[in-house]
Amino acid sequence: MADLAPTVDRPGVHVAKTARDFPATGSYACRCGVSGRATGDDNVRDLVAEWIDHRNTCLHR
After folding, report:
1. Which long-range contacts (CB under 8 A, 24 or more apart) does 28-34 make?
2. Distance between CA atoms of 43 and 51, rounded to whole angstroms?
3. I need a surface site. Which of 4, 8, 40, 41 has the fewest CB within 10 A?
4. CB 28 within 8 A of CB 14
5. What is the average per-residue pLDDT within 23-48?
6. What residue segments make up the domains of the chain, in order of their start?
Protein backbone atom coordinates (compact mmCIF):
# COMPACT_ATOMS: atom_id res chain seq x y z
CA MET A 1 0.00 0.00 0.00
CA ALA A 2 2.95 2.34 0.42
CA ASP A 3 3.01 2.99 -3.32
CA LEU A 4 -0.56 4.33 -3.10
CA ALA A 5 0.46 7.07 -0.69
CA PRO A 6 0.45 10.50 -2.34
CA THR A 7 3.74 12.37 -2.65
CA VAL A 8 4.85 15.72 -4.03
CA ASP A 9 5.77 13.91 -7.26
CA ARG A 10 2.45 12.04 -7.30
CA PRO A 11 -0.03 14.40 -5.64
CA GLY A 12 -3.49 13.37 -4.57
CA VAL A 13 -5.48 11.96 -1.72
CA HIS A 14 -5.65 8.38 -0.42
CA VAL A 15 -8.27 7.06 1.99
CA ALA A 16 -8.45 3.52 3.36
CA LYS A 17 -10.75 1.68 5.74
CA THR A 18 -9.64 -1.92 6.11
CA ALA A 19 -12.72 -3.11 7.98
CA ARG A 20 -15.97 -1.73 9.31
CA ASP A 21 -14.76 -1.84 12.91
CA PHE A 22 -11.40 -0.19 12.22
CA PRO A 23 -10.83 3.56 11.87
CA ALA A 24 -10.28 5.09 8.45
CA THR A 25 -6.86 6.47 7.56
CA GLY A 26 -6.06 9.11 4.99
CA SER A 27 -3.32 11.28 3.60
CA TYR A 28 -2.84 13.87 0.91
CA ALA A 29 0.04 15.66 -0.76
CA CYS A 30 0.24 18.55 -3.20
CA ARG A 31 2.92 19.60 -5.67
CA CYS A 32 3.43 22.76 -3.58
CA GLY A 33 4.63 20.65 -0.62
CA VAL A 34 1.52 20.85 1.56
CA SER A 35 0.51 17.48 3.00
CA GLY A 36 -1.69 16.03 5.70
CA ARG A 37 -2.54 12.78 7.47
CA ALA A 38 -5.46 11.69 9.61
CA THR A 39 -6.78 8.67 11.46
CA GLY A 40 -10.40 8.16 12.44
CA ASP A 41 -13.54 8.42 10.36
CA ASP A 42 -14.42 12.01 11.32
CA ASN A 43 -10.82 13.18 11.06
CA VAL A 44 -10.43 11.63 7.60
CA ARG A 45 -13.67 13.29 6.49
CA ASP A 46 -12.21 16.62 7.61
CA LEU A 47 -8.92 15.82 5.87
CA VAL A 48 -10.71 15.23 2.56
CA ALA A 49 -12.56 18.55 2.92
CA GLU A 50 -9.22 20.25 3.67
CA TRP A 51 -7.69 18.65 0.54
CA ILE A 52 -10.59 19.80 -1.62
CA ASP A 53 -10.28 23.36 -0.31
CA HIS A 54 -6.53 23.37 -0.87
CA ARG A 55 -6.79 21.84 -4.34
CA ASN A 56 -9.32 24.48 -5.40
CA THR A 57 -7.08 27.38 -4.29
CA CYS A 58 -3.51 26.13 -4.85
CA LEU A 59 -1.63 27.50 -7.84
CA HIS A 60 0.37 24.24 -8.25
CA ARG A 61 -2.53 21.89 -8.97
Report:
1. 28/54, 29/5, 30/54, 30/55, 30/58, 30/60, 30/61, 31/58, 31/60, 31/61, 32/58, 32/59, 32/60, 33/8, 34/58
2. 12
3. 4
4. yes
5. 96
6. 2-57
